[in-house]
Amino acid sequence: MRPLRPFLPHLNLAFVCFSPARGGLELMLVRLAHSLKGAGHSAFVVSPPGSAIEQECQGRGILHYALSPTFKYLDPWAAGFLRRCFLKHSTQVVVVGTSKDISTVILAKRYVKGLKVAYFQQMQSGMMKRDMFHRLTYARLDRWITLTRAMKKSTQERTIVPPNLIDVVPLGVDLERFAPGRYRRNAARKHFGLPNSKAIIGLVGRYDPQKGHETFLRAAPIILKRFPKTHFVLVGEETKGESGFLERLRQLVKEEGISSSVQFLPFTDQVPQLLAAFDMTTMPSTSETYGYLAIESMAMGIPVVGTNAGGLPEIIEDGKSGILVPPGDHRALAQAIVSLLSNRRRLREFSRLARKRALESFDYNEGVRAFHESLFKALSAG
Prior knowledge:
The chain has helices at residues 24-38, 52-60, 76-88, 102-109, 132-138, 149-158, 185-191, 213-226, 245-256, 271-276, 292-299, 330-341, 344-361, 364-380, and strands spanning 12-16, 42-47, 63-66, 93-96, 116-120, 143-146, 166-168, 199-204, 230-235, 262-265, 280-283, 304-307, 322-325. The chain is an alpha/beta fold. It has two domains: 12-172 and 363-380, Rossmann fold (3-Layer(aba) Sandwich), CATH 3.40.50.2000; 180-361, 3-Layer(aba) Sandwich (Rossmann fold). Strand 4, helix 4 and strand 5 form a beta-alpha-beta unit. The longest helix is centred in the C-terminal third of the chain and has 18 residues, at 344-361. The two termini are 36 Å apart.
C-alpha cells in the first residue's frame, strides 16, 4: 500500500472493541488504527486478552491494552481502566467498535475532560433503541460513523442520534494489494490445494447461519446438473466460543450428495491470493451489513453474486459488476451463477467492470482520509 500523507490536525486516538471474534469488523478496526498511526497520528487499541484484535495489533506493532469487562453494559471497573489509559495517552477521540461497548466508554468519558467518543457502526441492528438507556447513552456520543446510506437511514429510524452527527464513510480496500495482475490463477489454486481444471465458486466468511452457507450448498446440486465440473469452496472459521454450525454444513454436503465437489478451507489472511483462485465469489447472506469481501473480490476482478439486502446493493451494480438475488433463495442463486458460467464473454465483462467499480469508488486510502475528517468533526464538536 502506498504510504498515507499526514492528515492534519494530529489526533491522539484510542480504539475500543470487546469482541473476541475474528471477523471483518474486528480486523478493520485494527487496520484503521494502523493506517491512522502510519499517517502521523497516535493510536492504541483496547480489546480482550487473547483476542484476534490483540494478535493483529502485535503483528502490526500497535500498542494494545488487554481488558475483558465483567458486565456487558456500564462496567465501572472497565471504565476506570479505560479512564487511566485515556489520561496516560492524552486521548482526544475514542472510536468504539461495537454498540454494546458504548455505555462503558461513555462512563469513562465522564472523568476525562474534553474527551470525544465516536461509534464506528459496521453491523446493522434491527432493534429499536429509543428506550431511556439508549437515549441517555447515545446522547453523549460526539459522532456516529456508518458504512452505507442504508445504515444511516436505519440509525435515524431506530435511535435518537441526529442526522447531522452521522457520517457515511464507505471504506474500501488496498487497491495495490488487491490487484489481479499480482497473482496467477494456477499458482493460487496449487497453493490452496484447489483443482486446476474446474470452475471455482467461493464463499469466504465466518461460519454463521446469517452468512447463507446453507443456501449456497443447496444451490450447488442445481449448478452441478448444468456444469458438473464446478467446485465449491467455503473458507472461514466458527465464531470463538461457538461451535456446531460447521458440522451441520458438513452433514448437509453429505445429504446433498456433493462431497466430491465441495471443499472446506480454514481462515486465511492471504485473501487476494485466495480470490485469484476463484471464478466467482458468492455472498448469499440473509443480511450483509456492508460486504468487505464483495469489494475485495471486485478489486481482484472477481464478479460477485450476492443478495439484495443490507449494504450489498450499494456496492454491487446489479447486472453490471455482479448479480443480486433475494436472500434465502437457493434457486435464484443457482440461476445467477449458471447464467455467468454459461456465458464466458459476459463473465469476463463483469470481471472488467468489477475492477473498474472498485478503482472508482473503493480506494481504502480515500476512505481512511474521510474517516479522519469525521473524527476531527467529533473533536470540533461543542
